[in-house]
Specification:
single chain; alpha+beta; three-stranded antiparallel beta sheet; 3 strands; about 40% helix
């Protein structure tokens, strides 16, 4: 499957930390801005269970993305020094998926 989001391979994500704010029936994943939050992503709510709870979990996962990516990069770099480390390949694949870089 091709990546429709790959536009500028040098572009980077918005620096964290990202937070979650409720706005009407939408969870905003945002960073603080001078004149209010700068919205990075929106997750709709107001659904029946279990989808409602899943949407809240999705918002938490999205908001954690910068921290997760940083931790995964540290793990992959540390694992590079250990021959046969089982997580290196999967970690690098996930990093490439998140950054749009080609392996």
């Amino acid at each position: 499957m091709s990546d429709p989001l790959t536009t500028d391979p040098k572009a980077s994500h918005t620096p964290g930390p990202w937070g979650i704010e409720m706005h009407n029936d939408t969870l905003w994943i945002a960073i603080p801005g001078t004149f209010g939050p700068k919205v990075i992503a929106e997750v709709d709510t107001g659904f029946d269970e279990p989808f409602e709870s899943q949407q809240h979990a999705n918002a938490r996962l999205i908001a954690a993305a910068p921290d997760l990516l940083a931790a995964l990069k540290e793990l992959a770099d540390s694992c590079d020094a250990i021959p046969g480390c089982p997580v290196t390949t999967r970690a690098r694949m996930a990093i490439h998926k998140a950054t749009g870089e080609r392996p």
